[in-house]
Write the structure tokens for this entry.
Amino acid sequence: MGLTGQLQLQLSRVVLDERTVREIEGTVTARKLVQVASRATPLGDYELVFPPGSSQASLRDLGGPLGVTGTLTLTGEPGYVVEGFVTVRPAAPQPLARTIAMLGTPDSAGRRPFSFAGTY
């Protein structure tokens, strides 16, 4: 995905069915994420929290140029769907702010919806 950073896993339960993740319980934290695809663009810190017996995590930022809230849902392909809202904070680099602006017109709170999916 063209990202670098630090990944911390605190998982108390993972259920696999061959290559497919069926259930996760715990927290996944990504820190100091940087998009390196074109320029080194800092993206901040993020957290996924999987409650017990779930295949869906809550997603939130822990600081950085973007305010993010949403969900990550594991699918049976095996894959994932990430959906949520993003806001651009004042300290965000202009190229990043322009990229987020392509998501469309923000709502009254300045949030833009986003979603993406993939397989693993």
Remarks:
- Residues 94-101 form the longest helix (8 residues).
- The helical segments are 94-101.
- The chain has a mean pLDDT of 94.
- The CA atoms of residues 6 and 91 lie 22 Å apart.
